[in-house]
Recover the amino acids of this structure.
């Protein structure tokens, strides 16, 4: 742990997205282990964010900055004018040209686009492929790079690849946007396979497909990016998504800023984080009714296991008999519904033991266990060691 003075760090993130919240978690976890940092967190919200960031910079007390909104012209202007050590999270943008005390860390977005194309090509034969890209007047480079990777993976094998670009002055997700997107989807040769630049845009695709009478995944297979569980698990059908490791990316950003602040003179470099994995859900899967039942049960457990639910709550959500739910779930997963709930809770207990200093009693309560002693006994029976022993081993 550093013994120097506490450093003041401004962090500008899009916290309305799960990726932004994961980035913040990774940054804070690294700082907790390695640094004495005090954060000024700014949630990106158009030009008001730039004014807040400008005030923080003008105050003269900042020692460093981490930002993932440098593709916004107003934000980029503030960052460009400052000499404060800076780490930018995300693709390189021409809006930011400063060379000193700056670093870029980002996902391999070309590889993400390529991974999406390869996955779609692996699950079936499609007559056409589509990429849902940026607005035509957008400064964002992430969708551009993902589209480039998507096309590069499919172009060499002669596939019909098309891109939907939102028209100027059409707000994403608006009634006009959904109508235009629906018309574009209807014109694709079917079956078609679609990749959206991120999960929120994929949600718009689902809405447009329904409005146009198209069925996902029968007419259109769909994959997003970011694995935002609030979107992916509540979409109908649930959304397959590529899951970059945003927590690790946040840790990398914090480690990079620490390095720059130690030696800020004339430093400019770039770090790339590889793709993590694809989380498959119903938007790319042709499934029988029994498999849909299990998918709905699994999705409900993922969303609610930490809220203290039991097997009866899952069965009630499914709207079928307890016996049918138990039989189908065990056939598909090899475990009971209750076992699946407990596994989800224990996995989260392990994560919190490893990544936080939260007392064990608070962890067990937060993870849906009604009694600390029961949770401890269950944990030891499953893993052979107590929670405190497991924490010591894995924190070391």
């Amino acid at each position: 742990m550093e013994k120097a003075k506490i450093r003041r760090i401004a962090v500008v993130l899009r916290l309305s997205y799960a990726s932004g919240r994961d980035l913040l978690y990774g940054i804070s976890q690294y700082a907790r282990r390695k640094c004495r940092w005090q954060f000024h967190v700014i949630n990106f919200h158009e030009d008001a964010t730039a004014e807040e960031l400008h005030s923080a910079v003008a105050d003269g007390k900042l020692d460093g900055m981490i930002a993932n909104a440098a593709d916004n012209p107003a934000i980029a202007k503030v960052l460009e004018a400052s000499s404060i050590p800076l780490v930018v999270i995300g693709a390189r943008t021409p809006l930011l040209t400063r060379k000193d005390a700056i670093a870029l860390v980002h996902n391999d977005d070309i590889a993400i686009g390529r991974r999406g194309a390869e996955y779609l090509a692996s699950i079936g034969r499609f007559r056409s492929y589509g990429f849902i890209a940026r607005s035509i007047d957008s400064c964002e480079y992430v969708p551009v790079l993902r589209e480039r990777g998507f096309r590069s993976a499919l172009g060499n094998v002669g596939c019909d690849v098309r891109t939907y670009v939102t028209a100027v002055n059409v707000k994403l997700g608006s009634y006009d946007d959904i109508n235009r997107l629906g018309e574009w989807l209807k014109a694709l040769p079917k079956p078609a396979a679609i990749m959206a630049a991120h999960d929120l845009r994929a949600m718009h695709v689902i809405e447009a497909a329904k409005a146009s009478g198209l069925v996902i995944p029968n007419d259109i297979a769909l994959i997003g990016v970011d694995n935002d569980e609030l979107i992916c698990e509540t979409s109908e059908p649930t959304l397959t998504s590529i899951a970059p490791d945003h927590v690790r990316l946040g840790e990398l950003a914090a480690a990079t800023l620490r390095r720059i602040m130690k030696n800020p003179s004339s430093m400019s470099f770039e770090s790339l984080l590889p793709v993590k994995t694809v989380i498959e859900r119903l938007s790319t899967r042709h499934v029988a009714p029994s498999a849909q039942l299990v998918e709905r049960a699994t999705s409900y457990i993922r969303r609610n296991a930490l809220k203290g639910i039991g097997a009866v709550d899952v069965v009630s959500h499914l709207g079928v008999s307890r016996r049918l739910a138990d039989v189908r779930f065990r056939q598909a997963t090899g475990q009971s519904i209750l076992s699946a709930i407990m596994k989800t809770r224990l996995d989260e207990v392990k994560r919190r033991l490893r990544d936080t200093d939260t007392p064990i009693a608070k962890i067990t309560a937060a993870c849906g266990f009604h009694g600390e002693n029961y949770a401890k006994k269950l944990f030891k029976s499953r893993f052979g060691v107590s929670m405190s022993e497991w924490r010591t081993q894995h924190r070391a």
